Amino acid sequence: MSAAIEVQGLVKRYGELAAVDGIDFTVSKGSVFSFLGPNGAGKTTTVEILEGLRRRSAGQVRVLDLDPWTDGAALHRRIGVIPQDFRFFEKITAKEAIEYYRALFGTHADPGELLANVELLDKIHARFDTLSGGQKQKLGLALALTNDPEICFLDEPTTGLDPHARRAIWAVIRNLKREGRTVFLTTHYLEEAELLADHVAIIHHGKIIASGSPAEIIREYGRPERITVVGPPDLAQYLESHVGLPTTTDNGRISIELADKRDALRILSAIDASGLPWESFETSQETLEDVFVRLVGQMDEGALKQETPT
Amino acid sequence: MNFRHVGADYKIVARTYFRNPVALFFSLFFPIILIALFGLIFSATGSGPVTVDVLNEDHNSPVSEAFLSALNNTTVVKVSLVSDTSVTPSNFAAWLGQNDLPVGLIVPAGFEKDYLNRTSTNLTVFTNPQDASVTGTVLGAVQGVANGFNLASACGGRVCSPVISYTSRNVGSQVYTYIDYLIPGLIGFAILTSPMFSMVDVASSYRKDGIFRELSLTPLTRAEWLLSRTTWYVGITFVTAGIMIGAGIFLFSAHVQLNLGILPFLVVGPFFFVSLGMLAGSVARTPESAALIGNIITFPMMFLSGTFFTVSSFPPALQAFAHILPLYYVIDGMNQVMLFANASRALLDLVIVLVGGIIVFVLAIRLFKWRDE
Ligand SMILES: Nc1ncnc2c1ncn2[C@@H]1O[C@H](COP(=O)(O)OP(=O)(O)OP(=O)(O)O)[C@@H](O)[C@H]1O
Ligand SMILES: [Mg+2]
Of the N and C termini of chain B, which has fewer Cβ atoms inside 10 Å? Predict the structure, then answer.
């Protein structure tokens, strides 16, 4: 069982700039792979190379066992693409757009069904130039599915959408996975990657700086889980001496990093045993977003030493 | 080549077009406006002596030679004797038309005898009414010289009627008016402008908006895409030509021959200019430079290919320039078919445009990429 996408040593240079600077990754069939990165990280460049729209400068790329650049025609029948900032013929309605793609691909997709799928059925007769940004994006998604693709490439499909529309797109993506399709998703939204992706690669300045499942990345790069208790300063001292873990206090919030999950239980029983008043407690874990922001920030400061991904 | 693809894309073009009122207005009413405008305003062109091709049927008689040299001495016209022996008075008008000669004169047989006997004799002057000033100049010169000869003829003090008179006729096989010459010219104008301007725009704006990128991800090929656009503009050209011919006939009583021979030009012409527009739009990097390149190609052709003024009325250098413009051959071909019934020259024009069109089409397909290399 071969992978849907295999990339080795991929490099793309625009003159002096190496927009993609030697990246490797594999996307297994039927999984959702998310490419996370700040603006200008090289996400679109990579996606367009995988789609056969841009020529790579160096490296090996196989998509569905095809070379995207030279076997574009064969590949395009099997993939669906929604580009960042999707645009289409201004005066054409949603239904006509799908009929057009259907004729080009020679498939029998039903416009009503595809549009219902992305919650755009009410705009079936609306012309493209009258659709809102999010509705355009949804139409792009419906068009990308006209040819029943094996892989869907979605380049920031939810950027600029309202929370409701974003959730609708998420539902479509989950559905794609359920139908056994492979999804390659780029996004700025960590939450999105965390919710949808089986595998995440964080890309920055053309290099992958972290990669794995969201949980793996958090485990590997995230700060340890911590427990925060709201209570008097005496409680902080009591806990430090009885639990033996360093505490920090900030405005009545006593915070303790957990070396082990079971430390939380020891802390809670110590609070109870102290007999001191307390108001509330919570445990918290760094999110992928915290990790992402910190990794990117460290890298920009040059503080992150040659971290090897995986 | 998959014709389902071409058909699907054609629907997109047609819908885009019909949903754009401005485009609709321009292709349907602009031809009528042009016909009306130019039908009402006669052109005035020409400078320097006008060459008059003379068919002297009173072979080398001293009086006819004296008359012609007097005409030459007016300096406003230059006499050139027709040497082609196959030319006769009956085919002279058509011959002038086919050879793009603006002015002709027939000196009738027995001119000298009639003049000396004071029997009236009649010269025939052929001009192209599209060249209003040339026509005026030539008729004035002939009239002036004839008056001189009439005075010189001894009337013995009696009041006598002038001996030499002339009849004014038009170049071509029948009597034409300016509007007749204008119709092929304006059809040519439409064949040039509507594909050129919109293809240049489409080529650059589709690239900017990423629509070509979208299309490159579908099985549609560039040749299919270009064919669908060509088909559309051929259709537009048919409608426009129909409107122009209709307006010419009904508003200005034009006498063009409605000959099926113009149909190939209405197909091959748009084919050429759709490809050329695409080529111009694809070599440009930005919509602004595309528009500039498009205008540089289009504007000289708009005026110098025989659209509003016959090329034969241009100074020689400009005529030579006109002969390198592809639109010249489209318009000349339609003139040959609609006015002069000269099939062989029309065929030559058609072949030139077709071969040029194939070259431009291939170049456009080669150079126009829908993805970044
Ligand atoms: N055609 C191009 N020519 C030159 N430089 C380019 C080109 N396309 C992209 N770049 C540069 O390559 C780098 C990566 O761009 P890319 O579009 O891949 O980023 P991205 O991760 O998709 O960013 P965003 O989140 O803003 O979409 C950027 O610095 C960009 O300026
Ligand atoms: Mg991008």
Answer: C
